Amino acid sequence: MSEPREAAAPIVGQDHRPTAGIGAPIPRHDGRAKVTGEAKYAGEEVPPGTLHAMVVASSIARGRLTGLDARNALAVPGVLRVLTHRDVPKLGPASVLPFGQSHLPMQSAEIHYEGEPLALVLAETLEAATEGAARLRPTYERIRHTTFEDGREVVPPGGSEGNGFAILEIDAQKGEVEAAFENAAAAIDETYMTPCRHHNVMEPPATVAEWRGDTLDVHDATQWTYGVRYGLSAVFGIPPENVHVRCPYTGGGFGSKGTVWPHQVLAALGARLTGRPVKLALGRAGCFTGCGYQPMMRSRVRVAADRDGALRAVVHETASLTSQFDDYVEFGNAGARGLYATPALLVRTRVVKADVSTPTAMRAPHEGPGMFAFESAMDELAVQLDVDPLELRLRNHADADPLSGKPFSSKKLREAYAEAARRFGWSRRPRAPRAMRDGEKLIGWGMASAIMGANRMAANARVRFAADGAVTVEAGCQEIGNGAATVLPQIAAEVLGIPAERIELRRGDTSLPETGGTFGSSTTMCVGSAVADAAEKLKAKVATLAAASGAGGKSGAVPPERWGAILGELGVAEVVAEGAFAPDGAPFDLNGSRSRYAILTWGAVFVEMEVDEALGLARMRRCVAGYSVGRIVNPRTARSQVIGGIIWGYGRAMLEESVMDRRHGRFLSKNLSGVMLPVNADIPRDIDVFFVDEHDEHASKIGARGVGEVGEVGVAAAIANALYHATGKRIRKLPVHVEDLLA
Ligand code: MOS
């Protein structure tokens, strides 16, 4: 098989060739296990005697369950039990984080959202559970429900009064905003809409739970084994150590497996009440009601500028959908807060309460939807001022954090703009729209900046060196496709001087050192720094042993090839060292708030779109994108992450939308038929990704920031801006529809 073209992204400005450790483009360590089926996922772990569970979910958005005759299901051969709210003990409490929603299942007859679990059918086979569930016919008393369109807009509680979602200030301001608009030479005031979307992971969530006395064993499809431990320990009132959660492979998550949802509770509950292991797999339909979604968001963006394009004020106000019981906040205003220098800025975050389940983070939450609005508005400002869109960004480049005034830990966005523009050929762009054609098709070039927050979370790791030469890295985090199984060994390899291919990662297990969840683009930076710390300590321990045995002189510095022999001589079977990462001494830090520096990631995205106005069809022809994200541990897996993000952004722009039927308060989709997602045929071969060489010593020990999500940010705006350049039509509501582009 031929090597894919440019498998590793170039690191622009790098003056050395990395070897087998940090910086080496080594292929995915777990690739073979995944494509051969050797990798085992949670739902495949079925102990003998396992019962299969099926959820019966509410088909109404608000009301009461008035009847549900379990006898219909129990008549099916193999159905053992039907649990309803009458059988379920009072659970709780469920606090947001580790839970995705605080409302627990089957605690009363009240119905709060479509898809709320009403009953759990437990059977000897999946077929019997499915048939039993299908025979239950719940009856309801309906209460009029509300949707985004008629829901109440409220100020979500912030800070310590919030319920775990208020990670940033709800409102923030600096300078005289309104005065700036009064005197501005140019101003934009527009409203933008982004839709609800579901994560649509390849591996739908599945949980296998088994009790042994007062301890609970769980195989779960999760992004956060420790979160599942804490969540289940809280609702069942047992110590956290009594919950053992395993998940060595996670088949995609994008946020939907970041927290605990009702199905994990129900699986454990079913197992407790029957005394048998229980497997509960959500299935595709369950993915549309059971594990969160990205909330729709309305953004009003106002920008004011001088004649020469210098910003005078930026304002970004958002309102996003949330449930009646939680205030999941989509902070859409990262661009206004942090991207450009401005004397005045105002951000306001609101939520709209409706009868829905609690939304959740979805790959590049906050920045993703918000930056469509903000970077579209910047493009509109460039058009009004008749300046080049890149020139407008450069003129307003922020050299310090606009809101806090703090210096950036590291920021090479200027380099990313310059190199991306050069590779794209941006200087040849005609200013006016509708100026480029290829046959019948209109061609447009658009660009946008990217900004993404940096979640630094405490992490622990362990490194083992055995006398037989085996090297193992251990951490509780997940391999979700992010490349953890590849890059964490590379980090140990760099420190130890042992080839990464010889180092195994043991992961995804609460018996291993605790890490944060595998989300927020944080794993390489945080767990990787803990791995580097552990590897350094291991190396020191080996040196001490070597020196004691008379090898390597006083320092005990011995090449790793000899370590095994030295341990053998000493009769030491294994050397083990523990390492940790704590962001500026704390368990958690967002965007460097605990640091003297503002810590964020950056990018520049350029796209070429073609539009057929006769058919209303658009295609992306090519994309060039450059990123300033700190040190790159593996330019192959990092490139793959960013390309995945760009495709995710293409989906946001052109295809994805979970439509809610307002009359019934339910999402229309219950399977993937009719759900528009990007496929290979939608995506050009020509996606050119690079990174700017960087070592961010303030962000993390290893110099890395985060790569997982920033690739998504700005893509939808760059596409919409290119569509404007192609057609002269400004699209302010995603996804782009055929009728938006028809002549
Ligand atoms: Mo993600 S939304 O950090 O899984």
Structural features, described:
With 743 residues, the protein is an alpha+beta fold. It contains 17 helices and 30 strands. Strands 4-6-2-14-11-12-13 form a seven-stranded mixed beta sheet, sandwiched between helices. The longest helix is centred in the C-terminal third of the chain and has 26 residues, at 523-548. The radius of gyration is 27 Å and the shape is globular. The relative contact order is 0.14. The structure holds dioxothiomolybdenum(VI) ion (MOS). Dioxothiomolybdenum(VI) ion binds at residues 223, 253-255, 258, 361-363, 365, 519-520, 709.
Give short descriptive properties of this protein.
single chain, 743 residues, alpha+beta, seven-stranded mixed sheet, six-stranded mixed sheet, 17 helices, binds dioxothiomolybdenum(VI) ion
The low-pLDDT segments are none
Q: What profile does the largest beta sheet have?
A: 7 strands, mixed
Rg from Cα: 27 Å
State the secondary-structure class. Answer: alpha+beta
Overall mean pLDDT score? 96
Give the proportion of residues in helices: 10-25%
Q: How does the overall form come out from the CA principal axes?
A: globular
Main sheet: strand order: 4-6-2-14-11-12-13
Q: Bin the strand percentage.
A: 15-25%
What is the first-to-last residue Cα distance? 45 Å
Bound molecules: dioxothiomolybdenum(VI) ion
By DSSP, the count of extended strands is 30
Counting DSSP H or I runs of 4 or more residues, the number of helices is 17
